[in-house]
User: Fold these one by one.
Assistant:
Number 1:
Amino acid sequence: MNFKHILVVLLLSLCSSGMVYAAGSPINEDYTALIALGEKMLEASKASDSTTFTTIASEASDVAKDQGNKGNSPRLQRISTKIKMAKKAVKSGDFGLATSLTEEALVEMKKTNGKPTWGGTTSGGE
């Protein structure tokens, strides 16, 4: 019976250490496909080409949705929202708004992940 208890404790400790590692790891997201599509969207909006913009925006939304299925990312949600808003702006004929929204989405995509900071650290030595 002691062997069973030791085995259960060992398995639970291994399981919990795996969860701690997963919870503490930073989110590494790759936006290269979305950046390429975003730049094509930007070119289409500057050229006032609504059909090309709509096609590329739909493709970008699908890519964002596929990446969103892999994990819940607040940055990806902001990007996806800006893409949808830009698509609506093009449908209403406002290419200026679509250009600015696409540029904002590109800035969001190109942001680098900062080092994670945890509470309790101080800058001064104690």
Note: Helices lie at 2-24, 32-46, 50-70, 74-91, 95-110.
Number 2:
Amino acid sequence: MRLGVIAVLALLPAPASAAEVLLLEFLCRGDQRLPVAHVLDGDAPGHAVIWYDGAMQVLPEITAVSGIAYAEPGYGLIWREKGVEGHLARALPGGAEEDLLFDCRLVG
């Protein structure tokens, strides 16, 4: 799966400078694994590339109260990390969220 995440990085717009890519893997409740690639380009907002439900998703960084968060615009996926923990949800109308993957912990 890591090769799939790396492959999607080629689809991102070329950064103005050398981007830093941090590859991580989380193990979530139910023994579900979630590979996450953080793409950082200096002061520009970052992106997370995740592989979920058989598809790669590129999520732009959003403002987070605590930790770091990435989300699709509108009613899409939201990935949050704080320390070694993560949580994947889907935004729903009215500000509610549906939990998709939770109790995620960084592997390795």
Note: DSSP finds one helix and eight strands in the chain.
Number 3:
Amino acid sequence: MAELSFYDKVAARADVPPEAAPPLTQAVLRTLAERISGGQAADMAGHLADELTPLLVKGTEDPQSFGYEEFLWRVEKRAGVDRSTAQRAVRAVLQTLHRVVGHREFEDAMAQLPAPIRALAEPVPREP
């Protein structure tokens, strides 16, 4: 069985149809690239498939400073979705990114984000 693509994993984690995963993933990665340093974005981009790499490459080292609400708003606008879908997408993309880029690289990036955004990277507890 072929390995699931990044988009397939995001679709499953966000509970969205497969065709919704690419625009959601792209919106989250573009927003993440704006919020972290250029060097950190480039480090993570090096672990991604070729079609995703340009989404994390940016022309400046300096990150923009914005919080949780602005992060979600940017994802909502870029992907054309509501708040709940944007939040699920951010969670799904961050969790998938964590698995792809590795723990140390991921933690270095998360250290640059406010706690509420970092919290979205944590797995949702399952009920017993």
Note: The radius of gyration is 14 Å.
Number 4:
Amino acid sequence: MRAHLESDIGFYYTVGAFTIAVFVVALGALAVITPAGIGTRELGGLVVGFALFMVVYFVSVTVHQLEDLEEL
């Protein structure tokens, strides 16, 4: 695990995975605490927005990785 975190790309992927884990735990906590507090429409918008954010994040990490390979 430590070797994975020593590279920039490995660190970025780990941060992305951690962000997704925090989001899933937060949604689970929200469902337990207030099951009627958030509607399907709002939940769908929240999930779709977060998914789009994570797609852009991982695409930018991949582009960064490709730029590093191009410099070699």
Note: The mean pLDDT is 84.
